[in-house]
Specification:
The chain has 18 helices and no strands. The N terminus is likely disordered.
Length: about 425
């Protein structure tokens, strides 16, 4: 979930500039949407810090009961957050490929983009192996190398291809649960047994290994990282179309707030309808308990339309900004300007709290409900510290390091002092 700075003044110029980005060079909507995405991503990732990543693979391996606050916490995350924010971040990454790399004929900017993606992969390897197995930076880096070959496509082509493939995956994700529930009971039971694979006892044994101290947490994290990276290869056909869709939405003016109002209202209304159906059925599924689905697969089917909800969220935020509510959406922009720093900081804080040796070692002690208090505290901290940092510096500390490595030299980070006025 790498944050590549969406620059207008710097990155869209014919030549590559090496100066820091001035505040006026930013594209507000992209910063705002990226801030929304990076905060929402934490809500989804939190459970994979608190429990081994295999715990969420099936209901049979879930080591906690979905009752009380945990039922509500799981429901909120599943309905309003799961897949919606990663989808948005992937779309925005597609935009950044163009904003940094420019057109395909621009060899200088192309070299800059390749250098940037190389260092992103390095950050991803360090992040995944040393901090958290769920890293997506490495995945974005190699997908970015593919996406950069398509960055000069026209908006319509990007929307048709990227949007069409994304719609196809969404329809398959929607139809799949309905088809599975239409299978004979014997086949359903066999499929459920195969899905279970990992047991609760396996998960608890892994928790003990994480909490054993010494090299234990890093060994378990590395094993999980290898599994995630293998799975990520199968996500390439999902990620690339989302990046194309995001760039198409940018080039068409949608992300910049230039589409007709009815377009945004249509996406918002469709997303609200989906959330209503998904929310009602997902709650019925939670109440019914594990291994029961009173909705006949409808809850999971509604969840397959996550990209629609992503566009609905983006539409509402864009409309709020367009119609004078920038005072509300503006709080997200500083978080988005420092999204790379904030993403990695989220991982460092969560890993330190739950399994790294110097922390309180909370691994395996919190369910989805209690986790929301940790997520909320980090949200508040990042909403406060991001504008404070940017009041002094022109970019986040890790954005600065990334840029220095990309350019191969030190670049300024402090904001220039305001010019004095002669009296």
């Amino acid at each position: 979930m790498a944050a590549v700075e969406p620059l207008s003044g710097e990155a869209l110029a014919p030549a590559v500039k090496l100066a820091p980005v001035a505040p006026g060079d930013r594209i507000f909507n992209l910063d705002m949407l990226r801030g929304w995405a990076i905060l929402g991503i934490l809500a989804v990732n939190a459970i994979t810090f608190a429990w081994p990543i295999a715990a969420g693979m099936s209901e049979a391996s879930r080591p906690y009961d979905l009752t009380g606050a945990d039922a509500w916490g799981h429901w909120v995350t599943d309905v309003f957050f799961e897949d919606k924010f990663r989808t948005l971040f992937t779309m925005l990454f597609g935009v950044s490929i163009y904003l940094v790399g420019g057109e395909r004929f621009d060899q200088a900017r192309g070299r800059l983009l390749r250098s940037r993606l190389f260092w992103l992969a390095v950050f991803g390897l360090i992040h995944g192996l040393a901090i958290w197995c769920g890293d997506i930076l490495l995945h974005y880096a190699y997908c970015g190398l593919i996406m950069m070959t398509m960055r000069s496509m026209k908006a319509g082509k990007l929307l048709w291809i990227g949007g069409g493939v994304t719609l196809l995956w969404a329809l398959l994700a929607t139809a799949g649960p309905l088809v599975m529930n239409a299978l004979p009971p014997g086949l359903m039971a066999k499929a459920g047994a195969e899905q279970a694979g990992v047991t609760v006892q396996d998960i608890l044994a892994t928790v003990d290994a994480y909490r054993a101290g010494g090299a234990g947490p890093w060994i378990e994290n590395a094993k999980a990282w290898l599994m995630v990276q293998g799975f990520s290869l199968f996500l390439i056909p999902v990620t690339i179309p989302l990046m194309m869709l995001g760039l198409g939405l940018f080039k068409s003016g949608f992300l910049g707030g230039r589409s007709p109002v009815w377009v945004y209202l249509l996406f918002a209304a469709a997303a609200a309808a989906n959330l209503w159906v998904f929310g009602a059925n997902a709650w019925a599924e939670v109440v019914a308990g594990p291994d029961a689905d009173p909705t006949g697969g409808l809850a999971s089917a509604a969840g397959g339309l996550a990209p629609l909800v992503t566009l609905g969220y983006a539409s509402m935020l864009i409309l709020m900004t367009r119609f004078g509510l920038k005072i509300l959406t503006g709080v997200l922009a500083p978080v988005g300007r420092m999204a790379f720093t904030n993403y990695l900081t989220q991982s460092l804080i969560m890993a330190s709290l739950f399994y790294l040796p110097w922390g309180p070692n909370w691994m395996g002690t919190m369910g989805p409900g209690q986790l929301w208090s940790v997520v909320g505290a980090i949200w508040i901290a990042q909403l406060i510290w991001s504008p404070l940092w940017l009041s002094v510096f022109s970019m986040g500390p890790l954005e600065w390091l990334w840029r220095c490595l990309t350019y191969g030299r030190m670049v300024p980070i402090r904001k220039p002092a305001p010019a004095s006025v002669a009296l």
